[in-house]
Every structure is written in C-alpha cells, then in structure tokens.
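Example record

Each entry pairs one chain with its bound ligand, MRU.
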Amino acid sequence: MKVLRNGRHSDMLAVWREGGTVYFIDQRKLPGALEIFEARNYRDIAFAIAHMVVRGAPAIGCAAAYGMALAMTQHDNVEEASRAIKATRPTAHDLFYAVNWMTEMAPRLGPVEAAAKYASDIIDKCRLIGQNGGKLISDGDIILTHCNAGALATVDYGTALAPIRIAHSEGKKIFVYVDETRPWLQGSRLTAWELTNESIPHAIIADNAAGHFIRKDVDCVIVGADRIAANGDFANKIGTYEKAVVARANDVPFYVAAPVSTFDFTITSGDDIRIEERSEEEITTMGGMRIAGPGEQARNPVFDVTPHELVSGFITEYGVFGPDGIKSLHGRL
Ligand code: MRU
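Structure tokens for the complex follow.
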C-alpha cells in the first residue's frame, strides 16, 4: 500500500518479517502517528492481535502464521502457542485457519518459509479479489464501505478496498462513503487514511448517516467479512447488518469481499458464529474522555451477522458467487 510520510509516498505492508522479528503498522496509533510494533515471540504476536495492534481477518491470520513460525523456530511448546494465539479473538475464521495451516504446512516447507508463503498468498488473493470485484464498479460509481477492509486489514490491497483500488487505478472516477465505524473508528481512522494515501476521493460519514446516503446516491455497498458460514450468512463489523437491510430496501447491490480462508464450511449458518464482545470502555469513552454518566453500563458486541439473503455477491479470489454458488468454493482453500 502507498503510505504518505513527510510529504513523500513509499510502499509498505501492514505486517512483515525481517530476521527473527515480525513488524506491524500499529493500528492503534493511526492516523495520528505511523508507529511500528515489533513482535519477537509468539506471546508478542498474541498481544498484538488481542490488543488490536493488528486487526482485520486476513491480517490477523497472517500475524498468527508468523506467530506459529516464531514458536516453532524458538522451540516453544507449539501446542501452547497454538492455543494462546487462537484464544486472542474468537470471530475471525482466518486466525484459526492460519494456525491449522501452519501446523500442516510448516513440517513440509519449514516454519519460516510456510509463514512467508501464507503472507504472500494472502497478498495474491487480495489482488485477485480486486480484479474480480473491480469489474462490478463502473465509471462514476459511488460506493459505501463499513469498517476497514483495506491493506491494513489484509497485509496489502484489502478485500472490500481492493476492487475500489483497482477501479481507481483503471481511471474510473469513483467516490467512497466511509462509515466512521463506532466504537473503534476503523473507518474514520484507518479506511480514510488508506484512501487519502491513494488519492481516492471519499468522505467520512457518521454510521447513522449511511441509510441517508444509500437511499440518495450510493451505487453499491462493499464490505469485508470475518467469518462466512456454509449458507452464506456472514459476520462482519457491528453495523454491517443494518447497511445490508437498507441496501436491500433501496435495491442497491450489497457485496461481501473475502478470500476463501474466511469461509467456514464447518458451520451451517450464522447462528453458529461466536460474536466477540469487547470492553464497555470502548463505548463509554472516546479518545480517553468519558462520554457516559458515572456508573453507566454498556454492551459492546463488535460483530453482527448478516443473513445470506441480503448478499448480492461474494467477491473472492476465484470470482464472484451468489450465496447459492459458494458451495463450489468448499475444498478450494
Ligand atoms: O475488529 P476488527 O477491526 O478486526 O474487525 C474487522 C472487520 O470487521 C473487517 O471488516 C473484516 O475483518 C474484514 S477485513 C478484510
């Protein structure tokens, strides 16, 4: 991804490895500061995932793969590392997929090589998602996205942002509405930062404004996913379900962009997806300031489930599929 630093563009990944250290763009600090977090063992990796230094399903998967490689090369108890990494966040399927993939592939390829392959495969898959999804975007389109499903969430390109990047690079004049995405503000802090770095025209909108714009002038909605069940029900950032309902009510196409590593064919429907609930403070405070009265309680589920009936298409590395077509992706991991 392009990153603007001191007035100059450079290319960066969200996650990378050099020697025995794994580096992350620290997503807690953006957009105010571009700081790099260094992980030297699997415990640092588990910390980074649990505390949102790195977030977004495919990027979490990649971090997990690097974490497993560190545990294996440092002769840690691999079972324990696998348990600790899997315990960080429950919803994103890529996390579990990556740990299992490493357990299978590291003995064949070597731990370091396997993790490097996992990361470069994710980048390739996201590039293909961009090419497949880019065809759905026409010159002049206005697109709405929720949360951050960009390069920060996937190492490079993104899932929902990949078609947007490709359409823009092909010279299509597009405009993106970026939901701010309360409470963690992945939209206003991260997606807007990525779009600014790429000079893609956009505006941040309050989450509550999405319905207004979908009704008025949005041509399509594109979001990412954290886990997609066998029937196409999927979990994504809290608030996604509402956007899908409003899109359907206004005949606006609603697309879900995700690699096949996000599909969980072991569960039949969205009812089986475990939804992470994070701290009340994310709701009762903002930027360190308390925004609720003393003693107020809050609930903070960070994902919701959208039923497959509301999805116009799943944009994957293998093409675009309706909810009925995703069965053909089973086994193509
Ligand atoms: O809690 P987060 O920030 O990890 O949630 C991320 C999302 O919901 C993304 O939309 C999803 O992981 C897709 S990322 C390509």
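The two ends are 25 Å apart (CA to CA).
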